[in-house]
Every structure is written in structure tokens, then in C-alpha cells.
From TrEMBL:
InterPro entries: Thioredoxin-like_fold, Thioredoxin-like_sf, Thioredoxin_domain. Gene3D superfamilies: Glutaredoxin. This is Thioredoxin domain-containing protein. GO terms for molecular function: oxidoreductase activity. Keywords: Disulfide bond, Oxidoreductase, Redox-active center, Signal. Pfam families: Thioredoxin_4. It comes from Candidatus Magasanikbacteria bacterium RIFOXYC2_FULL_40_16. Belongs to the thioredoxin family. DsbA subfamily. Residues 18-203 form the Thioredoxin domain.
């Protein structure tokens, strides 16, 4: 990003130093190795060379993930090309019985280039029964026959298992969990806390 870019961000979003000085309580590690975490199947928002990379470990049936949804959406809009967000499928099936099918449906939507639109519908509606999952695909004009065939198969179990193995690598304790340029964030953040963290990472680039 460089020094000029950093000061431009300061002008637009506020002074990075004053914003992040008080922020550190939710960062539980700063050196997480994410080598290999961007997989061929991974849904990615943002440019390849974005200075801030966020891995988002989420469960579509998790109420805390739902609470974070609008905050993440606002952060995406606010910081735009400064962010690359990599979604990681992390259904906690022991407590969320509908999550696995919802994640499989989202992966099927990703096959047709509609992951982030489908992601929005899953969080805004929170109806995760099969009929609803098929209805979301119809709303997004996803090819119905291909989607149903995909959802009725086990094709994306390996996709989800790969992300769960990455979650195990970081000893994930719950959702949502984020890794931001190596910093492990467990739990939800306010929009202001996200700004502090992002500006801190931009300052280091």
C-alpha cells in the first residue's frame, strides 16, 4: 500500500494510531500460519493483492455469526479494495443440526458464481430447511436442476471437511473466528473495533 496510500486511508477513515491504541483485548494470537488456507473451492471477496486478508470461519446457523453479518457487510463496503475476505465453512454440527446442509447449499451456489448473494440470503432469513435453501437458489436465478443435483450429492462434503481441518489447525473454539493478517480474533467485533484493526494492519503495509 505504501506511505501515501496509508495517509489517504487516514484522511478518509480517521487516524489509525488513535483508533487502534485501545484495541487489543480480542486478539488472542498474532502469528497464525494460514499457508494453504485459500483453497480452490474458497469463496473470496476482494482483490488478490488486497493489503488486509481476513479468513472468516463461520457457521450459518450460529446466532453470533448472524449478529456479525451486517457489521462485516458494512466493513466490506467501507474498506472495499483494501480487503480480501476468504470464507471458511465451519458448521458446528453438534449444536447446529441444519448447518451442514446450509453450507453444502452455499458451496453449490458458489459453483454457479452466486456464493456471496446466497450467503446474504442465509443470514438475512435464517431459514435453513431444504425447501428454503432451494427457494433461495430460485430467487437468485441459479440453475435449478444443477443446484438440486449438487445439493442431493455428497460432492461438497470434502470441501467442508477441508475447511474444518483448517479450523482444527488453529484450534478453533467457536464461531465466528477470524484471522486478519495473522491475528486470531475469536468472537464478534463492533464496526469500530473492525476499523481499529483494519487501520492497524494498513499502517503496517
Amino acid at each position: 500500500m505504501g506511505l501515501v496510500g496509508y495517509f489517504l486511508y487516514n484522511m478518509k477513515y480517521g487516524n489509525a494510531i488513535s483508533l487502534y491504541q485501545e484495541y487489543n483485548k480480542k486478539i488472542t494470537a498474532n502469528d497464525i500460519d494460514t499457508t494453504g488456507f485459500i483453497r480452490e473451492h474458497s469463496p473470496v471477496f476482494g482483490p488478490e493483492d488486497a493489503p488486509v486478508v481476513i479468513f472468516a470461519f463461520e457457521d450459518f446457523e450460529c446466532p453470533y455469526c448472524r449478529d456479525s453479518f451486517l457489521t462485516i457487510k458494512n466493513i466490506k463496503q467501507k474498506y472495499g479494495s483494501a480487503l480480501k475476505i476468504v470464507f471458511k465453512h465451519t458448521p458446528i454440527v453438534s449444536t447446529h443440526p441444519n448447518a451442514l446442509l446450509a453450507h453444502a447449499a452455499a458451496a453449490c451456489a458458489h459453483d454457479q458464481g452466486k456464493f456471496w448473494d446466497y450467503y446474504d440470503l442465509l443470514y438475512t432469513s435464517q431459514k435453513l430447511d431444504k425447501e428454503s435453501l432451494l427457494g433461495y437458489a430460485e430467487l437468485l436465478s441459479i440453475n435449478n436442476s444443477k443446484f438440486q443435483q449438487c445439493l442431493g450429492s455428497t460432492i461438497h462434503l470434502e470441501t467442508i471437511e477441508a475447511d474444518l481441518s483448517d479450523a482444527a489447525r488453529i484450534n478453533l473454539q467457536g464461531t465466528p473466528t477470524y484471522i486478519v493478517n495473522g491475528a486470531l480474533i475469536e468472537g464478534t467485533l463492533s464496526e469500530n473495533e473492525w476499523s481499529k484493526l483494519i487501520l492497524q494492519k494498513l499502517e503496517k503495509n
